Amino acid sequence: MRLLKFAAVGVTAALALTACGQGSATKEAAAPAGKSVVRYLNFSSNDGHEKDLTAIVNAFQTANPDITVQVETVPYADYFTKLQTSVAGGTAADAFELNYENFVTYASNGSLAELKDVDGSVYKKSLYDAFNADGKQYGVPESFSNVVLFYNKALFKKAGVAEPTADWTWKDEQAAAAKLTDKGAKVWGDYQPVSYNEFYKVLAQNGGELLNADRSAATFNSPAGVEAAKFLIDKVGTTMPTEADGAGTPDFDSKLFKSGKLAMWHTGIWMFSAMADAPFDWDVVVEPGNTKKASAMFVNGLVVSAASKNAAAAQKWVTFLASSDETTKTRLASSWELPPVGDETKLAPYLDQKKPANRKAVFTALEDTVLPPVIERQQEMQDLVTQELTSAAAGRKPVEKALADAQTKVNGLLKK
């Protein structure tokens, strides 16, 4: 998830024009007399939510007439290059947006200001805690997505199999998937990609960890890791389609589920709207675990630059953008990712939608979460773990050998 243009928002007409994506600010606007200017860099309003961000900025400035917010919006593909350059050059915005993986890097290298006296109670705890490092709060959650288990109620009913519950374990899922799979009819019981992202999650569901506490060594080549990898890989060709069946090709899983040929599907809540017109009844539930629950969570956060000369004003802005009623209403009305607020009465417009009926599972899943393990050479780690798991799934090497090789390679990345 990205969940997880250049625009400036202020009191002048030129700034307002830029906020709608029709211009671009190249330098900080001069602060009007008696006002502070907070420069804010973001990616998530790009390509469709510029006006939503403008509305939130206007509400903030009305509530805080002594602060002007200047917004710069950059496409996601260019965002982190621009951010890195500005931080290194001493020209970083006062406040900016980070996904969790990049937050870990910026928090550890001293680029972020510690936030003071933040009311953490207004946020879902797991989302708020994600932006705490070494006991200090360096950010607040802005929005999130997570992964749940989708299931086709019609297929369960036809097969006479009881529907998933929040108490299900891997064993329950596997037993149901076996009964629901009908290869003659090309109906599959389950789909969960054999990949890094799924592996670190099922590893956590089995009580294991990908890295040690200080991220200096990989720890997944363990009995818990082997069992977790086999949980994924043993599905392939038995209850789950293979690469030869098309698994892994673009939109394969969504098309399979929507066509009524897939009983259970591990995927993100961002697929709710795409499945809204599926011609059968479906719902979701928190993913099963083995020794424990652990749901994958993708979260964007808001931070203040350690170099900001307007840190207090910047903190006011980011906490407003994260948790104000104006933000919550705007996000829900425009389907601009989910707000991180803890008060579920404020989320009624989302929870009350008819499909899926069990939207409550989205928030229940936040009670037991696992965040992506992060190292400096993140993409390389993800790619090589996926490659080794794929080799095992294709039968090119035993699972134990694949994990041993993957761990050796990850440790090599950590030492370079």
Question: Could you please describe the fold and organization of this structure?
Answer:
This protein has 16 helices and ten strands. It is 38% helix and 14% strand. The model is unreliable at 1-29 (pLDDT under 50). The protein has helices at residues 13-19, 50-63, 76-88, 100-108, 125-129, 153-159, 170-180, 196-205, 223-233, 252-258, 311-323, 325-334, 348-351, 360-364, 378-393, 399-415; strands at 36-42, 67-73, 95-99, 132-133, 136-137, 140-152, 264-268, 282-285, 295-304, 369-370. The strands form two sheets. Strands 1, 2, 3, 6, 7, 8, 9 and 10 form an eight-stranded mixed β-sheet that branches. It is globular, with a radius of gyration of 23 Å. With 416 residues, the protein is an alpha/beta fold. The chain has two domains: 36-144 and 298-365, Periplasmic binding protein-like II (D-Maltodextrin-Binding Protein, domain 2); 146-297 and 370-414, 3-Layer(aba) Sandwich (D-Maltodextrin-Binding Protein, domain 2), CATH 3.40.190.
The fold-level CATH name of the largest domain is D-Maltodextrin-Binding Protein, domain 2
- Helix fraction, binned, reads 25-40%
Mean pLDDT: 92
Q: Helix count, per DSSP?
A: 16
